[in-house]
Queue: 3 jobs
Job 1
Amino acid sequence: MSTLPTAASWPHGVTPYQWLVLFVAWLGWVFDSMDATIYALVLHPALHDLLQVASGGAPVSDSDIGWYGGIVFSIFLVGWAIGGVLFGVVADYVGRTKTLIATILIYAVFTGMAALSQDWWHLAIYRFLTALGTGGEWAAGASLVAEVWPEEKRAKAAGILQSAWAAGFFLAALFNLLLRGYGWRVLFVVGVVPAIVAFFVRLWVKEPERWVTARKQELASGTGHRLKIVELFQGSLRRPTLVGSVLAFVAVFGLWGATNWTPTLIGALPDMRGLDARALEQYKSYAIMALNVGALIGYLSFGVLADRFGRRPVFALMCAGSLVMVPVTFLTPHAYVHVLLLLPLLGFFNNGIFSGFPIYFPELYPTRIRATGAGFCFNAGRVLASGGPFLTGYLVTSLGSFGRAASAVALIYLVGLLILPLAPETKGQPLPE
């Protein structure tokens, strides 16, 4: 009987090229996260300037910024979903590496072009185009790592890959700290930096042999041009596609509908009232960092736990933990220090679940449609999940507080727990050919 590798021994046997592939894909996801986070950091000053210019210098209220900011953000999420599905299909037709290069260039170039915005709808267009690359990069990168790394080490590699999202957040925060005196447009210009990664991908990373072989067989059999996305809903693939899509929807809905209201929670605490705006923003930043520390631990832990206990039990753990920790975090604290202690636990579960998707989704599909399946599952529900923030806003009015609203949204994790018995268990199984 084979035994699982220990934490100290698992990297042994991984070739330098496999590490290189993981590093390049990780960098792509780091900068993906950084570019996505930049908008949240510059939302208020950017829209304030753009709306003021458009109105001829008239005062701009926070409600105006909230309204137009919500529109731009929703457009971004829709673009993310479209890009994730579209470029997942592209990656199965033309290759993982080529798609990775294209998507990195798309999100880098259009993040930089957002610095040229002269009206709010210019920013909305640039963010939509950026999102196409943001969504597409994940499917290509996750499939690339899954197909290059050894079977028994694949889950841990995928966990490392997902940890890039937390690293990208910290990188965006660092640039914001260093460049905040230069205006919001400079931060968007910094978003062009990931284009360098695309250059190194072109130089160093080749297409996986699995994909090359599968593509040759498709073309030789005359099936290389059929519509791949239709296959996801045929025969034995229908159930994993539906289950995977629901799981991703639950995770995204819970994140945007509950956890991302953390800054609002901080502002409502009794000991935060009366602080000046600058001090309050500083406390909010520390809180988000605490959340992301827990998220980073969750990202790195999922693969280890999934290899030990299986994919389904760890997804169940993350859903149950999120179901408990959202109301505990949003309803029980009465002081800032209490929230600061709870946020890492919430981040571990609520963000850590995302590390399961680059592990699990590539394991559900054969090579010829792996990126299509992974991209569809991860992104199809994102359009519906984009309604999470709007639902939370409605529930605040109905229930009387952000804490109650976020706790109500957390019930979505029950859907995840109910759907998991239908999910195929892929622990210890090789990637389908």
Job 2
Amino acid sequence: MLDQLDKVVATYNADGFVAGLPALSLSEVEEMRAYIEWLEARHAPGAGGHSLAQFFRVNGHVVIPALAQAARHPTILAAVEAILGPNLLAWSVELFIKEPGSAKTVSWHQDITYWGMGETNDEVTAWVALSEVSQAAGCMRFLPGSHLGGVVPHTDTFAEDNLLSRGQEIAGVDEARAVYGPLAPGQMSLHHGRCFHASGPNQGTDRRIGLAIRYVTPAVRDHAPGRDWAMPVRGEVPRGGWDCIVGARGLFDPADLALYDRILMGQSAALSAGATGKVALYEKGSAT
């Protein structure tokens, strides 16, 4: 196992990503997908003035227990710990869903551009497939080695079919160098926040469902202004610029909904900084 993790770390450090790693069992995938689709059927309006779609895309672990629990999965944490070290926080848990035949895409971008964390190396995204995520289904593409540079300029497009909060994109990416990262159900990829990545439309016959868990270390806030919220999942509980949360205590619990509002208000300034238009995803009442 240690030898395998050493190879994962070496690939990640060289390329900025690694794909096809085991994360969840097939039974765990089936259970999680069934739960997500139950939420869609029974709780589509959401709660507390927020749509279910907003909870899926922004900090769902604060109000949906299953998403908080997913961030604590030992197989996922073992791989992330090999890269980031023993002290881990889940900063955000999100769902990216593309319906079959959907034109929805994700443009070329770097994750940490608007996170308010600077150009840190102390973060990694675990992207877990909850369905078959093939090239036809619109799997992610990565640009190897792009994480070795800094954060580059992004243009806000606010394109209707772009799943990103402001349709942000990097111009002039050499797509001939891009590498596809297809995933079978239960597999995951890990990518660095400065790694250029994108994904195309779902031309398959099934939903394309991905669970994105953003992990950071306590050190992320050592040189960042202000405070932020995160859920400790392994190692020491941090101090300093972190407000630590425990994750959802129940589905749409009133106290969790109040916390969700405070977090959204606190994070929205950084996440919307420099936007050339309204970033609805971070506003209360968003139905995005």
Job 3
Amino acid sequence: MEILDGKKISNQIKDEIAAEVAKMKENGEKVPHLAAIIVGNDGASLTYVGSKVRSCKRVGFESTLVQMPSTTSEVELLKKIKELNENSDIDGFIVQLPLPDQIDTQKVIMAIDPDKDVDGFHPTNFGKMALDMSTFIPATPFGILELLERYGVETQGKHTVVIGRSHIVGRPMSILMGRKGFPGNSTVTLTHSRTKNITQITSQADIIISALGVPKFLKAEMVKDDVVIIDVGITRVPDDTKEKGYYITGDVDFEHVSKKASYITPVPGGVGPMTIAMLMKNTLLARERHRSRK
């Protein structure tokens, strides 16, 4: 069993990006600039955005954090998005999800300029991804592909089972793992909360990508020997014995499933760090795209 170490690989990617940014600076070029909008003060969202800002600093990007109160109206947020769309200094930006109830998430995603949508959520980018065209791939699926590629995990002709059908992870992964090329060329089954006899399906899988958000959902008896496990789930489970009052766990019963797996991602330290690294990579791509048009 080999651990797919997202922390290690994400650090390698950030080092590679930092080297490219250093060259840009040497040549007197503008460095990439990533902005993030956060509405409200959700603890997990603040943590994520904080680590994105720190990562920008590490690789040499400019970064802008726009914090808006939880009472922000949809109109106010859309106005701020318009400002960032029109600001030529900003190469890419994200709106941290989830948003407060008074704001229509779909409307917000639609308002972002597809050329600055480094999260890859806009329908234009999602459609291009589905058609195998050059575009921004959502950061978490992009990170999973990178992990599989850098560890040389064989995907061709394999049976990949994706658990979860979210637009952020499940659905894009089901498309990407079935595309031509590497990683890809696998036969994909997309499962979700309404799937019957899920154990029957997972026990035949060569690769399982779980993005359900249910702690320790995937048990050892649900997988076959030598399976490749990608655990995207990340849940804070309350625990008074821990200093923070909770512990973080994934969708996979790691202790028992890891005994049967050939490769497995840990939680934390697997897919999570990769997501932020690939957001940096998308921002670099956005900068290059904007430069080539000038």
